[in-house]
Amino acid sequence: MLLEERLKNYRLILSSASPRRQNFFKGMGFDFVLDIRPVNEIYDDALKAEQITDYLAKKKAEPFTDLQDKDILVTSDTIVWFQGKPLEKAANRQEAIAMLSSLQDNYHEVITSICITTKNQQLVRHDKVKVWFDPLDQEQIAYYVDTYKPYDKAGSYGIQEWLGYVAVPRIEGSFFTVMGLPTHLVYKGLSEIVLAADS
Question: What is the rounded radius of gyration, in angstroms, for the C-alpha atoms of the chain?
Fold first, then answer.
């Protein structure tokens, strides 16, 4: 039986305000409900790369202490990892321009973790993708930031927007991970959870 059919016996919960992640769930054919609960996204500075996203994806599941037997919760987190440091969401225009300027003519990693949680089980997975940027001048960077206002995106850019069309010559890994959700890992993880529960 297809996973999509098996999931009809469950209540699949997506905890993400990201319209991109919501569209991915629709694209995978999932019936789901949105339930977004506030969480303080603070982590220890000792954490590096995927340790950060794994930790935050799990932390986003912590408010869900009321999961029922047939509930499956999916939470996730994305960062841009560049030269040994995380680049998260920019607080303002100046910060976004500075971030994008630092990424030019180089490559960085986009890391996205998912956490799938049920009443009795939790599964955490992550995916890493290398993204190369061609050089852009300050006028182009300012145009992108002012036009697309990428303040809700790790690293201050969306690869599916203008910047991705004109300045990303190469990626190594899943396009969907760069957009904020490793859909292949979500599908595999949900399959594991459901098969274990149904056996």
Answer: 17
Strand partners of residue 127: 112
**Whole-Å CA distances, 95 to 70, 79, 91, 101, 116:** 43, 15, 6, 10, 32
Please list the active-site residues. 77
Does 199 score more than 80 pLDDT? no
Instruction: Give the whole-angstrom CA distance, residue 80 versus residue 157.
Output: 10
pLDDT of residue 88: 83
pLDDT above 80 (res 177): yes
- CB neighbours of residue 109 within 10 Å: 18
Unique residue bearing structure tokens 């890992």? 185
Question: For 3-43, how does the pLDDT look when each residue is reduced to its tens digit (9 = 90+)?
Answer: 988 999 999 999 999 999 999 999 999 999 999 999 999 99
For residues 128 and 173, the answer to whether their CB atoms sit within 8 Å is yes
Q: What are phi and psi of 164, to 5 degrees?
A: -65, -35
In this structure, is the dihedral angle defined by the CA atoms of residues 146, 148, 150 and 156, taken in order, positive or negative? negative
Residue 20 has phi, psi (to 5 degrees) of: -65, -45
Predicted TM-score (pTM) of this structure: 0.93
The length of the chain in residues reads 199
